Amino acid sequence: MSGIPTLREPQQVVEETGKIQTDRRGLLKGLFAFLGSLVLGSFFYGLYRFMAPGAGTHPPVEVPLGELAPGTAYSLQYGGSPGILIREEDGGLLALSLVCTHLACTVVWNPEKREFHCPCHDALFDAQGHVLSGPPPAPLERWKVEMKGDRVLVGGA
Ligand code: FES
Questions:
Q1: Does residue 1 form part of some domain?
Q2: What is the pLDDT of residue 1?
Q3: 43/11 same-domain check
Q4: Does 67 lie in the same domain as 136?
Q5: Which domain does 108 fall in, by range?
Q6: Largest Cα–Cα distance in the chain?
Q7: Does the beta carbon of 135 lie inside 6 Å of ligand 1?
């Protein structure tokens, strides 16, 4: 009687069902093991990055000295943060982060008044980044400046 499905023995059905469940269970175990290894890997990589020497530092930004006439400023990005490199009239160089130390708004350099203004809570910083007024608890972050030939390197370790 071909074409008519045959009835299986109950034990055979249970074995097939058990095999399917085992396969699902194995798949879930593998999936959880994979996800667990991702989580652990992320944790230990983050721990390594936190504890490794030089962690948190970024390669310095190069600015050609020729682009910095005395009394001018150069906008730059260092480590993902906006910053400014100021060349004083006497040739002195100063690099500051433009991230306000209150709630991280971007401050604006006013070359005429020689001060930084934070528009978020109306704070003022002097040309050296010190707080003149407003709620910021600390001066603007100062970045390392180094001369290398005709280039200025900003930031770095
Ligand atoms: S964020 Fe700059 S003063 Fe508040």
A1: no
A2: 47
A3: yes
A4: yes
A5: 61-154
A6: 105
A7: yes
The domain tally of the chain equals 2
- Is the shortest distance between the CB of 105 and ligand 1 below 6 Å? yes
Euclidean distance between CA atoms 63 and 132, whole angstroms: 29
Contacts of 38 (CB under 8 A, 6+ apart): none
CA of 94 to the centre of ligand 1 (A): 22
CA 74 vs CA 146, 150, 152: distances in Å = 15, 15, 11
**131 CB within 6 A, ligand 1:** no
pLDDT at 3: 59
Asked whether 85 lines ligand 1 (CB < 6 A), one says no
**0.85 exceeded by the pTM?**
no
Rounded Cα–Cα distance for residues 86 and 71 (Å): 7
Note the pLDDT tens digit of each residue in 1-37. 455 666 666 555 555 555 555 677 788 888 888 888 8
CA-nearest residue, atom 3 of ligand 1:
121
Assess if residue 2 is contained within a domain.
Answer: no
Q: Is the CB of 123 under 6 A from ligand 1?
A: yes
CA 141–ligand 1 middle distance (angstroms):
14
